[in-house]
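Q: what does this look like with fe (ii) ion bound?
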Amino acid sequence: MIEVSKGIYWVGAIDWEIRDFHGYATPKGTTYNAYLIVDEKVALVDTVKEPFRDELLSRVGEIVDPAKIDYVIVNHLERDHFGSFAQVMDVAKNAKVYASGRGKKGIEEVYGERWDVTAVKTGDTLGLGKRTLRFVETPMLHWPDSMFTYVEPDRVLISSDAFGQHVAGSQRFDREADPHALMEDAKTYYANILMPFGTLIQGLLAKVPSLNLAPEIIAPDHGLIWTKPGTIIDAYGRWSKFEARDKVVIAYDTMWESTGKMAHLIARGAIDGGVEVKLFHLRKSPYSEAVTEIQDAKAFIIGSPTLNNGLFPTVGGFLYYLKGLKPKHKIATAFGSYGWMGGAVKEIVARLKEMELELAEPALDLRYPVTKQQEQECIEFGRKIAKQVKEAKQ
Ligand SMILES: Cc1cc2nc3c(=O)[nH]c(=O)nc-3n(C[C@H](O)[C@H](O)[C@H](O)COP(=O)(O)O)c2cc1C
Ligand SMILES: [Fe+2]
Ligand SMILES: [Fe+2]
């Protein structure tokens, strides 16, 4: 039995084996966190992914009879937290449901008016006895129906998907983890899930005082619970502003190693130029790893050979994935090798323009295997980007 704070329990499930979370690599697995608040009334906040419903119900059963749950709070309707909702409601026969307005609509679209669902707005409360739940709508963080549930007077913020990390393990709290690894996991999660919502996150962080939120504990729906919430709130402040380091990320693919050779020479030049470099072969590393490094890099460079007049497919896929995450305030450019008419580098540059990034010109577009003279050009290209990075303000 895991107590988050007196009378507030973690009743989630550990998914040790998941390695792909809707396309995002999860080498460490994940958890689906759900929370049970036991007072004069009993409230369950969120459920778990459908195959884990028995684990949830048995954890609840260690504390109270699940049939005695009075309220089920749905912070958002994604399947990893909502997948076993109907089965939980079959057991918690008398439970009333609370969700945001869009959440209520979503539940009724799927199940009709099978349950008593109350739509709540920011500031609405639900008394449990000594404790009160206060709801905060967080639309588009990261779904239209998303909201937070704040438990008073315990000052526990159940933050849905915000502040999470995909990591399975025996630890439940930040204090049990290696702090560096924990922040890396939180950054990977932020980059791949929350990067597009930086402006909304800035807005929410600015509103925290007026919302009367002063959490002592932040309990997200994935990974470890923050007992020192300042650490992750500060990090979200930095990440949502795209605060970046003197770092260049090189992501590429290659058929016959010409583009590969260029990638390594460009890396060498950038290292000579005095910046940190991360390099990813896009068929050997998941997109999510490269994206995580781009999150706090001042520059990234994408490389592709020309295949049938266009991009190598992994590079096309990566650019598409990255575009959806809306990276901002980055220097970007392209390189690649071609045999006759080319096309890949032009295509990368076009995609980068669509992302409204600052383009470091010109891109490096070379024909066939790299000659000695072109090797020098690649090294020089890397040096130039490094110089631009070091001169960039942010
Ligand atoms: C299946 C295939 C299709 C190709 N299509 C084109 C093309 O449409 N236009 C072009 O300029 N080069 C084309 N090439 C040539 C490659 O772009 C060239 O060999 C390049 O140097 C490969 O770079 P890499 O070693 O990084 O794979 C093609 C090569 C292969 C193997
Ligand atoms: Fe989600
Ligand atoms: Fe989630």
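The chain has two domains: 2-240, 248-389. The mean pLDDT is 97.
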